[in-house]
Amino acid sequence: MKIFDSHCHLNDKSYDKDMDQVIDRANAADIDAMMIVGITERTTAQAVEIAALYPGCYASVGVHPHDASSCNENVLTNFKKLAKNPLVKAWGETGLDFNRMYSPKEAQEKWFVRQLETAEELNLPLIFHERDSNGRFLDILKVHYSDDGCKGVVHCFSGDSNELDEYIKLGLHIGITGIITIQSRGKGLRKLVPHIPEDRILVETDAPYLTPAPEKNKTRRNEPAFVRSVLMKVADVLEADPEELADTIWGSTCSLFNINSNT
Q1: Are strands 201-203 and 31-36 parallel, antiparallel or unpaired?
Q2: Secondary structure (3-state) at 208
């Protein structure tokens, strides 16, 4: 079995002291690939550095909507330079978050659009973040991608059935986190997962956040090894063979990020 953690933040300071052990535990759990996601200029540079140190690790470049106020054209220019590294396989995490409002709506929308444009220029798939945007996220995507579809993944999907349908129509993949394993919080997600085509499902940890069950009963910090629990729960919900589902998701993830699936 080969599993791809399609979204983790190994560039978080919580891994500073035991990165080697975290990677070893992931490999022992059949996690053969990890996408380390950038959210600021600093963490993006760190993601690329970490990916260069560990086989099977890749990086994305991007500014999270929380940090949109810190984005500017110089940041995007720097990201373009970083994206020349063959280990950079995606742009993101970018999008809209109108829940906590760490950056004003105007800044979020402006730099979301600019990141869409830059990713398209570089032909990089996108890693999206959406929370409580009240349809604005979809409105912007439709303006840019209604004709030829969008190559990307909605990270940590938490929307409703209508949003799911729209994402599927746009050609997007859907990222499933450890929330699916949580009895109460994951109830709605478990109902929606059967409506996602299997080749559009990605599994992710969002580590160090969103620790799945049963690991969350032992530790607060999530890590890539735990994405195996996400995969197993998705297989359970779909009544699918875990190994066959793992193969499908591995192939889909590699295809999305333009990675040789045989590596």
Answers
A1: unpaired
A2: coil
Pick among 3.30.1490.190, 3.60.140.10, 3.20.20.140, 2.40.50.140: CATH of 3-256: 3.20.20.140
- Answer yes or no: pTM beyond 0.90: yes
Report the SS3 class of residue 5: strand
pLDDT, tens digit (0-9, with 9 covering 90-100), for 6-49: 999 999 999 999 999 999 999 999 999 999 999 999 999 999 99
> Is 162 in a helix, a strand, or coil?
helix
User: Is there a contact between 17 and 53 (Cβ–Cβ < 8 Å)?
Assistant: no
Tokens coding 6: 């399609």
218-255 residue pLDDT tens = 999 999 999 999 999 999 999 999 999 999 999 999 99
Q: Are 122 and 91 in contact (CB under 8 A)?
A: yes
Domain boundaries, the chain: 3-256
Residue 170 makes CB contacts below 8 A (sequence gap 6+) with 141, 142, 145, 146, 149, 150
Q: How many CB atoms lie within 10 A of CB 135?
A: 11
